[in-house]
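Run log // design_07
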């Protein structure tokens, strides 16, 4: 793809993220809960809201790979010693919940980094 076309696509996704952020801030201010976003951890929430549309487009495959590696792969936080353990269902549920929370809370970082890498790669091939 063309560098300028891809850059414009990323800008549109970032603008869509800003629109989502404005909507969330409006809803929080109408309920009186918007003070939390003025804290230090609120900055990360603002970044996540702005970058999540970009992450869903560019980092979806990485997020799915990480989800599967935590849920059923080599990075399982909870394991059972035997294949027919009575705790197998509980450990599978815990692994799924941890994988899902990891993707929700940190997925925007994977997607933003993947988009940045793709844009840098296209920029290196771009000739003016």
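design_07 sequence
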């Amino acid at each position: 793809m063309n560098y300028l076309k891809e850059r414009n696509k990323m800008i549109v996704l970032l603008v869509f993220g800003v629109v989502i952020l404005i909507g969330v801030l409006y809803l929080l201010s109408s309920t009186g809960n918007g003070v939390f976003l003025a804290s230090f951890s609120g900055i990360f929430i603002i970044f996540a809201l702005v970058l999540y549309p970009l992450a869903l487009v560019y980092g979806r495959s990485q997020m799915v790979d990480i989800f599967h590696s935590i849920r059923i792969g080599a990075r399982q936080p909870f394991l059972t010693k035997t294949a027919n353990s009575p705790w197998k269902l509980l450990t599978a549920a815990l692994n799924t919940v941890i994988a899902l929370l990891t993707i929700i809370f940190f997925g925007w970082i994977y997607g933003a980094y993947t988009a940045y890498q793709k844009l840098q790669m296209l920029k290196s091939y771009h000739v003016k």
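The chain is about 75% helix and 0% strand.
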